[in-house]
Amino acid sequence: MMKIIKQWRKDKYNVLLMDVILVMLVLVSFSWWQNKDSLSAEGQIAPDFTLTALDQSVYQLSRYRGREVLVYFFAPWCSICRLSADNLNNLRAVRSDDNLMIMMVALSYEHVDEVRTFVDDLNLQVPVLLGTKQQLTDYQIIGFPTYYVIDSQGKLQSKSIGYSTELGMRVRTW
Q1: Is the same domain home to 59 and 126?
Q2: Angstrom distances, CA of residue 82 to CA of 40, 79, 91
């Protein structure tokens, strides 16, 4: 009887291990599939842009060379964007503007009021720029939110599509 119980326990752990491996494989495959058509993040110079923020300030990406930049592309109608945007406020609280420039770029909106409402609802403390179709094309945005981390030399360092935790953002920008 003990032999049967030991064998059952061993099989149970093997099944659990196989389940964990299968779930990890599915997650990695989905992540790869989700990112396959987006802009490469392997040392390529980030496409420059000059955009106006909601407060009418003008931001040019290339002016931030010398420090790391996190560019968060979002759509005001995107529920995942709404969930993850507050993580940018939290990241801003622990990383100074001197070390990391965080900017949000609104895309896929019909009226500026949609973007303003999104920002006001979440009390966002980072610059929110009004993007154009050009950024959709240049950065090959295929879903929202899309994050790009740009190093101090203006090169793409990493990218991510979908929800990211504050910890995930910290790891990508450290």
Answers
A1: yes
A2: 25, 5, 15
